[in-house]
Design goal:
Number of strands: 15
Low-confidence stretches: 1-28
Radius of gyration: 43 Å
Helix content: 40-55%
Largest sheet: 6 strands, antiparallel, barrel
Structural class: alpha+beta
Oligomer: single chain
Mean pLDDT: 81
Number of helices: 6
Number of domains: 3
Shape: elongated
Length: 302
């Protein structure tokens, strides 16, 4: 004979089973999991000297192109002044071709006018033809002197110009070094780490601070081989993050990279069974409204 449980006990067991089944049915489902990361940029010094100013602190939101620091430029400024003085000295050595040829040009003009007068006199038999021949000889000689002087002055001008060109290039180099002495933030983002403080002496290439693009985070997730047919580049996916009260908040994402090689499951997964499975890494771009943080875990629905 079958024993019948009391109604109250049977009812409680049935209610517990239904509640357990309902919880299982409402358990969150996801296809992959991972953590948020971002593209990080290390801003380094492009000059050497004392860091006079660095207006960045960890957590600052900086736009691209903002000047946030300055390295001492006194020596560069003095070097530029010296080069500019040398340029001025070279310019003063450049001959004034027009003024120096003015006297010879005037002499040629005078001889030309005299020749016209003599030609008229020769035609009137007032003067001998030899006087015209002598005047032509003087005119030809004067023109040769003008040509020789113009050639000499041109050579001198080209020489001074050749001396001035290296100085001009050196001034451009100093201007570029002065420009590099300014610390310009390269990308819009959030300052993650500051490595130096103002008044420290920095060298070329020394890291000053690290900045990351927090407007668009990247979720690095891992999928098994049998899931690759369900995901492709550019695919829109749903990213789930934990919210207060045990809720789940969804955010849009887009697959931007899928690894072509498999790898062992990362060590952050501690179970022995998972560590021996081969998975494929993928990156999902997720717009950040300010609530997502670097390192935060998230799940993905394809």
């Amino acid at each position: 004979m079958k024993r019948l449980l009391p109604f109250s006990l049977a009812g409680r067991l049935l209610a517990t089973a239904l509640l357990f089944g309902g919880c299982q049915a409402e358990a969150p489902r996801f296809d992959a999991s991972g953590n948020f990361e971002t593209t990080e940029y290390v801003v380094a010094a492009q000059a050497q000297g004392q860091l006079l100013r660095l207006a960045v602190t960890e957590g600052d939101e900086l736009p691209a192109g903002r000047v946030v620091g300055l390295i001492d430029t006194v020596q560069l400024y003095l070097r530029k002044r010296q080069l500019q003085a040398s340029q001025q000295a070279v310019r003063q050595q450049t001959p004034n071709v027009s003024s120096q040829l003015g006297a010879l040009a005037q002499q040629v003009a005078n001889l030309q006018r005299e020749r016209k007068r003599v030609v008229s006199l020769v035609r009137a038999d007032a003067v001998p033809a030899k006087q015209l021949d002598d005047l032509d000889y003087q005119l030809a000689t004067a023109r040769q002197q003008v040509a020789a002087q113009r050639s000499a002055l041109g050579t001198q001008a080209r020489g001074t110009s050749a001396q001035a060109e290296p100085l001009r290039v050196q001034v451009q180099q100093v201007n570029d070094q002065l420009r590099q002495a300014r610390v310009v933030n390269p990308v819009a983002g959030t300052v993650l780490t500051v490595y130096v403080q103002p008044s420290e002496v920095v060298s070329y290439g020394q890291p000053l601070y690290k900045i990351g693009d927090t407007k668009m985070l990247v979720l690095r997730a891992y999928v098994a081989g049998d899931q690759l047919t369900r995901v492709k580049l550019g695919q829109a996916v749903k990213v789930l993050v934990d919210a207060p009260g045990g809720q789940r908040r969804a955010a849009p994402g887009r697959v931007q990279w899928i690894s072509s090689k498999s790898e062992f499951t990362p060590k952050v997964i501690q179970t022995k069974e998972d560590r021996v499975n081969l998975v494929y890494a993928m990156k999902i771009a997720v717009p950040n409204d300010g609530s997502l943080k670097i390192g935060m875990p998230a799940d993905v629905l394809f």
